[in-house]
Each structure stands twice: as structure tokens, then as C-alpha cells.
Design the sequence.
């Protein structure tokens, strides 16, 4: 597996409130998009990433071997990590930030063998590129998505709709949080993209698809290409992305034989 990630302030924001994590030892990958004035968005996203990583690492280190292959346990682990992060952000907000609102999205991906476990809250995203198809694995938690669900908008119209900035779920913003938790089977040759919404404020999915499906580029080259395209398009928001690629079966053997 090859991985790369980066985060950028963008063309119009003064600070970067996004946070990312690439832990190749733990095989945990996270993007988080913070919100809140006076640096609170940055604190929220950093707290979410830190708490989720530490929680999952501690539980995996102390779990019995059988649990490390148990779908129910691993999905529950992802869900509990998000709940703990939500509580930590709220406690910080009450103690340090007074009545200021702070929160963050989170899209997290944990790999165990040939399976991938995801936790998602907000409008950051996870995509899968498989063969010649790119599929969105997460569902945005915002008002625009509610209009899509009601049949009043299509997916393309929802991307930059005025209500797309209004989140219906976020860590830290509510007393309780409900994460979307899923498990996906990984196939040889798969690629995965995690990104904050800054990428799709500028690029259409077809633009991203062309880059993701380019077998001649490394994850680093793809990340940098997507960022450059976003910056050239104005980048009105912070932009963060991570790309993971699983080698096609027999790929290394063909190279070195």
C-alpha cells in the first residue's frame, strides 16, 4: 500500500482549520475540517484527530487477538472513538471557549487486513476508485444533502448550493453525535481518497476521477495535482486530502522479474 496526504490553507482563508492524520503503522487515516472563530476550529479538528487516534491505538493494543478480526468489535471501536472525541471537544469548549461554538467534521478510515472500517460525521468525504469507477462511500451531513434526499436537488447542484455550508452533524456542536459507521472489502488495485469539502468547492467529481484513475502517477503526484487544480480554481476554503493505493495483484512481481 502507498499513501500520501497534504493540507493547505487555500487561496482566501487566513488560517488552516483542517487537520489530517496518516498513521501507516496503525493503518489509520483521518481528515477533519474544523469550524469556529478565534482558532477554535483548528483546536476542534486537532482534538478530534488526536483523540480518535489515541483511543483506537490503545484499544487495538489491548484487544484480544480474536477481536482484531471481529467486524462488530471494530465498527464499535470506530463509533466509540468518535463519541469520545465529541465529548472531549465539548468539554474544551465549555472550559476554555465559553459560549463560542466550535466543531469539526471527521472522516476516518481504519484498515485491518483486507477490510476497511470507516467513521464519518459532517461533509468531509471518502471516495473509492475501483477499476474505471469512482464511488462516494460517505454521505454529506448538511442541508443540501437533505434537499437531494427530498428530490429537490441533484448531486451536482448540491455541491455549491447555499445550504451546503449548513451542517446537520458535527463533532462538538451537539451533546450527542451519530456517526455513519461502515465496513468495506478491499480489492487489489483499489484507491481511496479522503478529503475535506474544500476540494469539491472547486473541482467536479469528473476532474478528480481523471486524476485518481491515472495509473502512471503516485499518490503524492495525485495529491499535488489535485491541490494545484484547486488553488488555480481559487480555493475559497482550506483543502486537505489523503490518497491510499493498493497494488494490483502481481504488480511488484512484474516490475522486478
Sequence:
Amino acid at each position: 500500500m502507498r499513501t500520501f496526504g497534504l493540507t493547505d490553507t487555500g487561496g482566501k482563508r487566513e488560517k488552516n482549520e483542517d487537520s489530517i492524520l496518516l498513521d501507516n503503522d496503525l493503518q489509520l487515516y483521518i481528515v477533519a475540517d474544523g469550524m469556529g472563530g478565534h482558532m477554535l476550529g483548528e483546536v476542534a479538528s486537532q482534538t478530534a484527530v488526536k483523540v480518535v487516534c489515541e483511543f483506537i491505538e490503545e484499544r487495538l493494543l489491548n484487544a484480544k487477538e480474536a477481536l482484531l478480526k471481529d467486524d462488530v468489535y471494530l465498527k464499535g471501536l470506530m463509533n466509540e472513538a468518535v463519541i469520545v472525541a465529541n465529548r472531549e471537544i465539548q468539554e474544551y469548549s465549555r472550559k476554555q471557549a465559553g459560549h463560542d461554538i466550535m466543531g469539526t467534521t471527521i472522516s476516518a478510515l481504519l484498515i485491518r487486513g483486507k477490510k476497511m472500517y470507516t467513521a464519518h460525521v459532517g461533509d468531509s468525504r471518502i471516495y473509492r476508485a475501483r477499476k474505471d469507477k469512482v464511488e462516494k462511500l460517505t454521505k454529506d451531513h448538511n442541508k443540501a444533502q437533505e434537499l437531494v434526499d427530498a428530490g429537490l436537488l441533484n448531486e451536482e447542484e448540491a455541491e455549491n448550493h447555499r445550504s451546503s455550508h449548513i451542517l446537520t452533524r458535527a463533532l462538538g456542536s451537539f451533546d450527542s453525535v451519530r456517526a455513519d459507521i461502515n465496513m468495506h472489502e478491499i480489492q487489489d488495485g483499489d484507491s481511496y481518497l479522503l478529503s475535506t469539502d474544500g476540494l469539491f468547492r472547486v473541482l467536479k467529481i469528473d476532474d478528480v476521477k481523471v486524476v485518481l484513475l491515472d495509473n502512471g502517477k503516485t499518490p503524492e503526484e495525485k495529491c499535488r495535482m489535485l491541490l494545484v487544480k484547486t488553488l488555480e480554481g481559487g480555493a475559497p476554503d482550506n483543502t486537505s486530502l489523503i490518497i491510499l493505493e493498493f497494488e494490483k495483484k502481481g504488480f511488484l512481481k512484474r516490475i522486478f522479474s
Observations:
- The chain has seven helices and eleven strands.
- The CA atoms of residues 54 and 81 lie 9 Å apart.
